[in-house]
Write a structure and sequence with these properties.
Elements: E1 2-8, H1 14-23, E2 31-37, E3 41-47, H2 50-53, E4 66-72, E5 87-89, E6 95-103, H3 106-115, H4 126-139, H5 149-162, E7 165-173, E8 177-182, E9 191-196, E10 201-206, H6 209-215, E11 218-222, E12 227-232, E13 237-241, H7 252-257, E14 263-264, E15 267-268, H8 269-287, E16 293-296, H9 302-312, E17 315-316, E18 320-322, H10 335-345, E19 346-348, H11 350-353, E20 357-362, H12 369-380, E21 385-390, H13 412-415, H14 418-425, E22 429-432, H15 435-443, H16 455-458, H17 468-486, H18 490-496
Parallel strand pairs: 16-17, 16-20, 20-21, 21-22
Antiparallel strand pairs: 1-4, 1-10, 2-3, 2-4, 5-6, 6-7, 7-8, 8-12, 9-10, 9-11, 12-13, 14-15, 18-19
Length: about 500
């Protein structure tokens, strides 16, 4: 999962892009980059957090009233600087691009780009392939000083034809304008906003509305599935939906990944988590357990945990304190670093837990290592009983569309039953949300017919004709990438994170 932002402003946009990336830091902590244009394409990329990459020395040179930014963690490719976005194609015109998502056919398409299109692929990042397809398709047309909408549409249609998977793309074409498009199924989020500037209207594309709120942009709407939007140098907005396929946004955005204050596809992330907790409370109530206190696993589970406590008329307590200077362990590359980091990340408050029957609430259980260590931590703090609630269903399959749920053998629910998982993580009782309840909670009565991609919970992949061979290859590739990353001392890996 990544976060991307594009801004077309009246003066230097780099400071606003920086702030937008800070607001989306939760979407990726491995690397970040900003690229702007003022007659020259100006680039700054780095590994690590946004605040550590950009400073008073390099920000002033990122000049220009148009630019894009990106925060990244890898679901395809490595963790090197060569995989950091945005990417640049210097012909035709000069195209800069960043994305959020994954291509199912990335490796086949990369090989095809090298052999058939004779393009150098210098990274292991799939947006380089998307950019290559786009640039080749654009360059094959008869281009004049100004690009036409038909030419842009033809290039995006070629991306839709050849690039299979999920992708929300932002970018600009030097001297032409800013563009954005979303894959035909709209799996990954992308929003369009504007604000009134001193001279003329300014525009933004971003992965979450939280970054718009920070910058006082007003939400215009979501970019539609299969839609391309282009804003030319005169700030004229042109848009067209090029495909007509079923809209299937990622359900995991609402369960875990997006900020609670964001609105994605007109659905409130916060209200979705309230409803997830409300429905979950019914299942817990039917178990008739003696529960003294409800404790969230910070941060994304707080909303649902509070609703569960209220529905069950139980005390809600912050029994686990998070060190806010440690990143999300879920998006740390590598199992060993993840296991070691939990003690740096969380600390139990003994006075809130000692002698009590505790219901821990979390958004999901993926590998099981974090849940196991948290339960152990709560027991060591003096809890009598520890019950565990996941307000999403068992994660049984890898995500091929942009969430770091990499291999089946790493997923605790892939081969184990709920009772076996309960025993493995050391809980006295384990609750999971049902798939139907999760879907109904997110779409609610406002969007009764809205479908979602929930392949990581069901194994039903809606894009790319995913079969056992594709899953096996995905497992092999990602295992190799993890091995390459974890070669070396564990302490060194933690320093990288």
């Amino acid at each position: 999962m990544c976060g991307c932002v594009a801004i077309y402003g009246n003066d230097s946009v780099a400071p606003d892009i920086y702030d937008a990336m800070i607001a989306m830091q939760h979407r990726g902590q491995d690397a970040a980059g900003i690229t702007t244009y003022d007659g020259k394409i100006r680039i700054k990329k780095g590994l690590g957090l946004v605040r550590d990459i950009f400073d008073e020395r390099n920000m002033p040179r990122l000049k220009g009233d148009i630019g894009i930014g990106h925060v990244r963690y890898p679901t395809v490719g490595g963790t090197g600087i060569e995989d950091t976005q945005p990417f640049v194609a210097y012909s035709p015109y000069g195209i800069v691009m960043a994305h959020n998502g994954n291509l199912v056919n990335y490796h086949e398409l990369k090989k095809e780009m090298i052999e058939k299109d004779k393009r150098l692929m210098n990274s292991c990042c799939d947006v380089e392939v998307i950019l290559g397809v786009f640039a080749v398709a654009l360059g094959k047309q008869k281009l004049d000083d100004k690009i036409t909408m038909e030419q842009l549409h033809n290039a995006v249609l070629e991306v839709y034809k050849r690039c299979i998977g999920s992708y929300s793309v932002v970018g600009f074409i030097a001297g032409q304008g800013m563009f954005a498009f979303r894959d035909p199924h709209g799996v990954r989020p992308l929003l369009f906003g504007s604000r009134n500037g001193a001279m003329r209207k300014e525009y933004i594309f971003t992965s979450e509305t939280a970054s718009m709120d920070l910058l006082n942009f007003e939400l215009e709407r979501d970019v539609k599935p299969g839609e391309v939007i282009f804003i030319n140098e005169k700030r004229e907005v042109h848009s067209k939906v090029l495909t007509d396929r079923k809209h299937i946004p990622c359900i995991f955005e609402y369960v875990y990944f997006a900020r609670p204050d964001s609105l994605l596809d007109n659905i409130s992330v916060y209200k979705s988590r309230i409803r997830l907790g409300k429905i979950m409370a019914k299942q817990i109530k039917n178990a008739k357990l003696d529960i003294d206190v409800v404790v969230p696993v910070p941060d994304s589970s707080r909303t649902a945990a509070l609703e569960i406590a209220q529905e069950l008329e139980l005390r809600y307590r912050e029994g686990l304190v998070k060190n806010r200077y440690i990143g999300r362990t879920f998006i740390m590359p590598g199992q060993k670093a993840r296991r070691k980091s939990i003690r740096y990340k969380l600390n139990a408050m003994k006075k809130e837990l000692i002698g009590k029957n505790v219901l821990l609430v979390d958004d999901s259980i993926v590998r099981g290592n974090t849940s196991r260590k948290i339960i152990q931590m709560v027991r060591e703090a003096g809890a009598k009983k520890v019950y565990f609630c996941s307000f999403s269903p068992p994660v049984t399959n890898p995500c091929l569309y942009g969430i770091d749920v990499p291999t089946r053998r790493e997923l605790i629910a892939h081969d184990l039953t709920i009772d076996e998982i309960c025993k493995s993580i050391g809980a006295d009782k384990l609750f999971y949300q049902t798939h139907d309840d999760m879907i109904n909670a997110v779409r609610h009565k406002l969007f009764p017919d809205q479908a979602f991609c929930s392949a990581c919970f069901t194994g039903k992949y809606p894009i790319g004709n995913v079969n056992e061979e594709i899953l096996r290859k995905a497992d092999e590739v990602r295992c190799c990438e993890k091995k390459d990353y974890l070669d070396g001392d564990d302490e060194d890996q933690l320093n990288l994170l």
